[in-house]
Amino acid sequence: MKTVHIAIMGFGNIGVGTYQGIEINHDAIAAKTGLDLKVAKIIEIDIDRPRPVSPDRSLFTPDRMEVFQDPSIDVVVELIGGVEPATTFMIEALKHGKHVVTANKAAIAANYEQLTDAANEAGVLFRFEASVGGGIPVINAITTVLRSNRFEEVTGIMNGTTNFILTQMTQAGRPYADVLKEAQEKGFAEADPTADVEGIDIANKLSILISLCFGERVKIEDIPTTGMSGVTPEDIAQAKAEGKVIKMLASASRENGKIVCSVAPVRIGTDHPLASVSNEFNAIYLKGNILGETMLYGKGAGPLPTGSAIIGDIIDIATHTK
Amino acid sequence: MKTVHIAIMGFGNIGVGTYQGIEINHDAIAAKTGLDLKVAKIIEIDIDRPRPVSPDRSLFTPDRMEVFQDPSIDVVVELIGGVEPATTFMIEALKHGKHVVTANKAAIAANYEQLTDAANEAGVLFRFEASVGGGIPVINAITTVLRSNRFEEVTGIMNGTTNFILTQMTQAGRPYADVLKEAQEKGFAEADPTADVEGIDIANKLSILISLCFGERVKIEDIPTTGMSGVTPEDIAQAKAEGKVIKMLASASRENGKIVCSVAPVRIGTDHPLASVSNEFNAIYLKGNILGETMLYGKGAGPLPTGSAIIGDIIDIATHTK
User: Fold this and answer.
1) Cross-chain CB nearest to A295 (options B33, B145, B298)
2) What is the CATH number of the domain that holds B85?
3) Are strands B99-102 and B126-127 parallel, antiparallel or unpaired?
4) Does the global pTM surpass 0.90?
């Protein structure tokens, strides 16, 4: 049995989900993998916020450098979110020889090379399965078994809020503002829904997938992005009359050697695999030159599904390192 | 650049697809991974059968032991099919220190422990992504990033022939015998379709998934299996009237500590993610205790999609070994 000493940096919803996932499945993971996953430190200032879990107070520290300099810590899980200071903190952790796992799409989209370079230079691993599609194992698929392909296309429904709103608008013929309000009341949409409905969250994820599928960097400011707040019930009815549905799609392909990409509400035929992906679900559709089509579907958000991907990354790191 | 010397054992459709996939994507794989994949030997008696590729005749040998004893060979790809002599040959290769990749569901379902034990004892890797779902990266997902979960259920559409027949019966209201005949004419069904339509092929795949998801062995003779040749247009019409579709499903779950499993034509609601998986496509639906639901969809057969998975396994082996 090998003990993996984990530091969680940022103890919000996803940090709590990761902690809970480790608690719930500690013994099952130990039985399957021989790994004893142990949350050894939680880097967080706010100890007393009400949370559904109660880690021992001695695990909390506000001092990240103390943790990065602690030789017993194997993996740092960055869950602060946002580009900065998260990027700086991750690079510090990598430079101190810590493997880093993150769910932070914004930081990776902005600083992919800096982060992967820092990991390579330090001889440690940097993993981010949870940054796209939550619990859906898409990044692992692209970076392992599907590497046998040249990717021709990646298209995804990668935001649960906008997919929920469009699904409800389609099924009930209701206007955008009305459904948004309901989604906010149910906790499916943020009080300020801009990052979701205007496609910014999705563009971050698409930038990451472009890096992985095509080996090229397209920054989010270079991804043509159209929000879905302008979609009307009339647009949806017209699409339906054409045998189509409107989905908020992120898409990239290589055409004549150049990456063509966009984030926008798009009409797709009801026979497309993405057409039946409803409500809060996400899916990523890939075309490989020898594989043909594949699609990976699941919950793109939520503390436990996201924790599933983070813990999967931790296990993967621990099984591939001493 | 690291050269990986590959021996393909059995040069039928899948062997040819693997060879073609390596030819087509050799340079792309080298650029992405630093690996120079090289088919160094083809273990096959029938050199002159017409095939869409023409490897140099010097690659062919009828003598597997010559290849297993050749220290320059890194990986043996077993594509003979069937339980024996394939199992014996794979164990021989493993004992000679060769990593083994296979698409052979029947051999793994029958001899999972013997094969994995032989690999462990020899300190080499044994990979079989292509044995379930063709190019769909489901085995890798279960054995890597999704290990963070206790699996609660695995349900799949894992046979393109039966899914094609049921889809056509459903869409056109045609009887089984009629659609089977068309599928045979189009090459979607074998002249003797027994292994497909009676669920034997599917039971082999389910046995493998049960081993991986639940860590328990259920041999195919212990999986209650009902073929789909008895499904009538009336059954399908009645399902439709209930808002359901009939799909040939393989399913396993753990109930009160015991594995409950079956292969059978089953009615599922049209809102189930598997309901919209049509024609020759396959999909595997998984429930994990922290992940929730996920589904992986794609082409479950065919030389190039299956080759995609085999080459993915070869790359994975080469990147995780010296």
Assistant:
1) B298
2) 3.40.50.720
3) parallel
4) yes
